[in-house]
Design brief:
mainly alpha; 16 helices; single chain
């Protein structure tokens, strides 16, 4: 009965379609940088692109996979509520996409953004209650509960930004502080913690004691540092000296996550009773490398020389955000989906995955080169075209993925 009330595969399919739409919007954005396209407002499309990416792709995929965790745990509950919550989430995502494209930050886009936050609150409430019914998996549930808390916390940034806009506050630092607050607790909170929750959910039957030990160390490292690490996001603003040192200590402690996450990846790859697919290994290895690079870049930002470039150069900011969104989160989710589906006799299109991976790596390399050029006061005329090609590659790869004929129940 539960599987009839909630079809994980259908929602995963919708999330992948949404991911393709995100990539398609990225292609248009890159096209407009290189060629004239007067019908499209670049800034409005950029807002629609980013909001839809957060809510329509990553959040929808994570919600569906987290509900799937309940199903695989054998929990008996009313799954129909999740079906309607995901419908509401998808509706707000498309509402934001079209509203931002048509009018930018205005009544309808702000309304749909607010509604998406209230949908998240309802999901958090119901999922928390259902998690409490699974008593024997506390080492997994703690990841999900922390993710839910940080998801709720991230909305403070949105409401703070709305307050500043309503009062027409002219202090630019406050706007950036609110935006970075939202981004930090989404990327490093809700996204990261839910992904690790899903990973340990996948590993729950495998060499349990060994993985639980790594689980505890990794969780403590990330949980202790996630709040003070927000300060790293605002080092470019004027903050008191003691906050700088709190952020510096936190970034240093977070480096331990590199060690524990590497031990985790190594344990997965060498465990005979797990035997994950080669494509999953590739995607999760890339996700780990992206995660390691993200943490390293955060640590480097405490050094004033690197910090000045990190907060002043647009290619660095865009590259970092895409590294987190595509390299860490999207690679992990796609690997997780590939592994779950392959165990049901169906695989995501290999060529599509490889083309998508190529596009992501090409984009990150070019953005890095672009940032280095700016640092050395040089310019390269070809980078916008290459970034356009990378966007086409990502969209093409995802188009091949969504052609997967039939997603069986997972």
């Amino acid at each position: 009965m539960a599987t009839i009330q909630f079809n994980s595969s259908r929602w995963i399919g919708i999330a992948l379609i949404n991911f393709f739409i995100v990539a398609l919007a990225g292609v248009i954005l890159r096209y407009k940088i290189n060629f004239p396209l007067p019908l499209i407002n670049q800034k409005n499309l950029l807002h629609g692109h980013s909001h839809f990416a957060f809510v329509g792709w990553v959040t929808l995929a994570l919600m569906a996979l987290m509900v799937n965790h309940l199903l695989r745990s054998g929990l008996v509950t009313n799954y129909r509520k999740y079906h309607w919550l995901l419908i509401a989430n998808t509706a707000t995502a498309y509402g934001m996409l079209f509203a931002f494209i048509l009018q930018g930050y205005a009544l309808f886009s702000i309304t749909f953004s607010t509604l998406s936050i209230f949908v998240s609150y309802f999901f958090i409430y119901h999922y928390w209650k259902d998690l409490n019914k699974i008593k024997e998996e506390k080492h997994i549930g703690i990841w999900f509960k922390t993710a839910l808390i940080l998801w709720a916390v991230s909305s403070i940034g949105v409401f703070g930004l709305a307050y500043l806009m309503a009062n027409r506050t002219v202090v630019q630092e406050l706007y950036f502080a609110a935006i970075y607050f939202f981004l930090h607790f989404q990327y490093n909170g809700w996204f990261i913690f839910s992904c690790f929750g899903l990973l340990f959910s996948f590993l729950r039957e495998k060499n349990k004691l060994h993985f639980i030990k790594i689980n505890k160390c990794l969780f403590l490292t990330l949980a202790i540092t996630v709040i003070p690490n927000y300060l790293l996001s605002i080092f470019g603003l004027k903050i008191p000296g003691y906050l700088f040192w709190i952020g510096t200590i936190s970034a240093t402690i977070q480096l331990a996550a590199l060690f524990y996450s590497y031990k985790l990846l190594q344990a997965i790859s060498t465990s005979a009773d797990i035997a994950i697919k080669k494509m999953t290994t590739l995607l999760w290895s890339l996700a780990y490398m992206s995660f390691a690079l993200k943490i390293t870049l955060q640590a480097l930002s405490i050094i004033p020389y690197f910090g000045n470039f990190a907060f002043a150069l647009r290619p660095v900011i865009i590259g970092y955000l895409h590294l987190c969104f595509l390299g860490v989160i999207s690679f992990f989710i796609l690997g997780y989906l590939h592994e779950l589906l392959s165990r049901k006799g169906i695989k995501l299109n290999k060529s599509g995955l490889l083309i998508f991976i190529f596009g992501v790596i090409l984009q990150e390399v070019v953005l890095m080169v672009q940032a280095l050029d700016v640092m050395m006061s040089q310019t390269s005329a070809n980078t916008p075209i290459v970034l356009f090609i990378a966007a086409i590659a990502m969209a093409s790869g995802l188009a091949m993925l969504i052609k997967t004929r039939r997603l069986k129940s997972i």
